[in-house]
Amino acid sequence: ESARIPGPRERRAILAGIPERFRQATFEGYTASGMAQGAARKAAEVFSERFAVRRQDGGSMLFLGRPGTGKTHLACATLMAVVSDDRWTGRYTDAWSLMSEVKATWRRTSPESEEEVIQRYVRPDLLVLDEVGVQYGSDTERAILHRVLDLRYQAMRPTIVIGNVSLEGMKDYLGERAVSRLMEGGKVIP
What 8-state DSSP symbol labels residue 2? Predict the structure, then answer.
């Protein structure tokens, strides 16, 4: 049996790091149960449709709320819509993976420096950072996340942050300064 060759959409999803479960995520495939989820879908669609403006002003989005409400689906659908335009690059990761990659550079045998890994997450036009707030919350982890988010803020690169916490919980985890920067020109989607 021969291996299946991925089509253009799937290749873009793979290059963007979108998990297999969400590679086919679309706005049309998102079932909104209630006004809040409908508003979240609309906000994600508008964000992707107006990405050229978002890229200029650095406006980000925070998807916050209970597990199972479709936050990752909407964020991946947004990322796919953005990277479907050849002008833009994008990257999906979860906070745990980002931490693991940075911490792996601390070994003497690491082929990469910490800054090289951080820059890998600063460079894309859009970064989707999932599962923020489920880590240990050590000072080191917060410092790494803050560094990535701050460099993206300075470069005016939009970020979508996803967390199963309230806005206050996100402020407690990331710090008020980081959340304030994400919200500057950005939007909180409960």
Answer: P
d(CA 44, CA 39): 9
CA distances from 83 to 37, 38, 77, 170, 187 (A): 23, 23, 10, 27, 20
Q: pLDDT digits over 121-175, tens only?
A: 999 999 999 999 876 668 888 899 999 999 999 999 999 999 998 899 899 888 8
Alpha helical stretches, state H, the chain: 8-15, 35-49, 51-57, 71-83, 95-104, 114-122, 139-154, 167-174, 176-183
Task: Give the 3-state secondary structure of 23-68.
Answer: CCCCCCCCCCCCHHHHHHHHHHHHHHHCHHHHHHHCCCEEEECCCC
Coil, helix or strand at residue 167: helix
- 21 DSSP assignment: G
Tell me how far the alpha carbon of residue 156 is from its chain's centroid. 15
pTM: 0.93
The total of other beta-carbon atoms located within 10 Å of residue 159's CB is 23
